[in-house]
Design goal:
Endonuclease, Chain A, 434 Repressor (Amino-terminal Domain), 281 residues, alpha/beta, single chain, 13% strand, 13 helices, 2 domains, elongated, 7-stranded mixed beta sheet
């Protein structure tokens, strides 16, 4: 069982206790559900840790069970475990732009980034056309609101970070990301040309891990390390925000290990150019 699931079950037990100790007398799950306009199954799922409540759910529960003062405690528990698991369903409920703005604020606070990208070109180096196709693909998958142009503008705004003194992007990129046609060939060609121009930037250290490199670790998922204090990685269902020191150190060791297979500077340009030529007839 994951720490997230354990925390959700503990919250469920607390919700059950509030229901059982209602000042109006012990409430049944059916009666509580009826008072809130919920199916009884929702009450059961919340109490058994099979569904994550929203902040609004917790407020309604605290009020309906006669414990309005318990809301702050319940909400604190929710924030505690949701700060680590951020589901795409919830994050994308209003589209991609709010997510991008959260990332912009987070990046603005950082000075040094260590990033491993194994599936797509990093957002700090994307062209607008490439970003547009990436957002469209994920919006279709997640069935989220289409706010593509707003999301693209927000992502492009983040790239100002690269031109501010004292910042450093240490980026490792799997060559497969240069060849993945997640967009039309002409868009990918423009994106690769953008990367060729990045090699040698003062604020960017770009390493390419060639497809034929000897790997000391499997490529696995991409991740970001912010100033050695926070790691963000993602899967199909959610982002994971990880801030305990041991986990951050683990991801940094993974980054250092992957970097041993990377090439830089002129050799990196040769690998990028090779991917560019592969797009030509």
């Amino acid at each position: 069982m994951t720490d997230f699931q354990k925390a959700r079950e503990e919250l469920g037990r607390r919700l059950r206790a509030l229901r059982m100790e209602s000042p109006q007398g012990r409430l049944t799950g059916t009666a509580l559900g009826a008072s809130l306009g919920w199916p009884q199954s929702k009450v059961s799922k919340l109490e058994n840790g099979r569904q994550t409540p929203t902040a609004e759910d917790l407020r309604a529960w605290a009020d309906a069970t006669g414990h309005p003062g318990a809301y702050d405690e319940l909400h604190g528990r929710l924030k505690g475990f949701e700060s680590h698991i951020r589901s795409w369903r919830r994050q994308l409920a209003r589209g991609h732009r709010p997510v991008q703005e959260t990332w912009n604020a987070l990046t603005d606070e950082a000075r040094v980034l260590h990033v491993w990208d194994s599936f797509a070109v990093n957002g700090l180096l994307q062209t607008p056309d490439y970003a547009r196709h990436v957002f469209e693909s994920y919006a279709a998958l997640q069935k989220s609101p289409r706010d593509t142009e707003d999301a693209v503008r927000a992502r492009m705004d983040r790239q100002r970070w690269l031109y501010q003194p004292g910042h450093r992007l240490n980026l490792l990129l799997w060559e497969g990301a240069l060849r993945a046609q997640v967009c039309p060939p002409e868009v990918l060609a423009g994106q690769i040309d953008r990367l060729l121009g990045v090699v040698g930037m003062d604020t960017v250290r770009l390493g390419i891990v060639p497809l034929d490199a000897v790997l000391r670790l499997p490529p696995a998922n991409g991740f970001w390390i912010f100033d050695e204090r926070l790691v963000i990685t993602e899967d199909w269902h959610a982002e994971l925000w990880l801030d305990d020191s041991d986990t951050v150190a683990l991801y940094r060791r993974a980054w250092d290990t992957l970097s041993q297979s990377a090439v830089y500077d002129a050799e990196a340009q040769r690998v990028i150019a090779r991917a560019r030529r592969a797009l030509s007839p």
